[in-house]
Amino acid sequence: MQRDKRKDKIIQKLQSAGSPVSASALAREFGVSRQIVVGDIAILRAEGYDITATPRGYVLPLNQEAASIYQIACKHNRAEILEELNAIVDCGGTVLDVTVDHPIYGELVGNLHISNRIEAREFVDRVKESKAPPLSLLTDGIHLHAIICRDEATLELIKEKLRSIGILFE
């Protein structure tokens, strides 16, 4: 398959996918190497496509007309990551990213795109397996999440749940 046709197919796949799509999955589908797909994604980004790389694959931005993005501040330890993520997704939110304010490097952002309990569990399992510290541990557990949800009522529900389990940082 020629590069231009493959790039069109990649965009179509990302637009129709309900979750992140890995470079490996795209490579299998198109019969090319993972590195070819990574190169195609780089070219698409250079052409102006707003493709985000998450730990589970590539995504295009969510439809912002149907929902809004909000920031919430949280504080917890490593053992409470799953409880935090589950609280957000159970109340109707999607965790887009995590941001910490590092004293030397400034703002550090990690893309997450977690929208259900399965994705939350997979993320926590990857953190455990990698033995890499989560970003929030760099700042004594204090961090921000960009979350997407339907409306402010949903945001308030999420905040109330996080407050009730002692994770909302106010």
Topology:
Elements: H1 3-16, H2 23-30, H3 34-46, E1 52-54, E2 57-59, E3 68-75, H4 81-90, E4 94-102, E5 106-114, H5 117-130, E6 142-149, H6 152-164
Antiparallel strand pairs: 1-2, 3-6, 4-5, 4-6
Helix pairs in contact: 2-3, 4-5, 4-6
Q: For the terminal residues, how far apart are their CA atoms?
A: 53 Å
What sequence of helices (H) and strands (E) makes up the elements?
HHHEEEHEEHEH
Average pLDDT reading: 89
List the strand order in the largest sheet.
3-6-4-5
Q: Which percent bin holds the helix content?
A: 40-55%
Low-confidence stretches: none
Q: How much of the sequence is in beta strands? A: 15-25%
Protein name: Transcriptional regulator
Keywords: Metal-binding, Nickel
InterPro entries: 3H_dom_sf (IPR035922), 3H_domain (IPR004173), HTH_11 (IPR013196), NadR (IPR026043), WH-like_DNA-bd_sf (IPR036388), WH_DNA-bd_sf (IPR036390)
Pfam families: 3H, HTH_11
Characterize the structure shown:
The protein is α+β, with helices and mostly antiparallel strands and 170 residues long. The chain folds into two domains: 57 residues, Winged helix-like DNA-binding domain superfamily/Winged helix DNA-binding domain (Arc Repressor Mutant, subunit A); 97 residues, 3H domain (Histidine-containing Protein, Chain: A), CATH 3.30.1340. Helix content is 42%, strand content 24%. It has a four-stranded antiparallel sheet with strand order 3-6-4-5. A two-stranded antiparallel sheet has the order 1-2. The protein is globular, with a radius of gyration of 17 Å. The protein starts with a helix and ends in a 6-residue tail after the last helix. This is Transcriptional regulator. Pfam families: 3H (PF02829), HTH_11 (PF08279). GO terms for molecular function: metal ion binding. It comes from Mogibacterium pumilum.
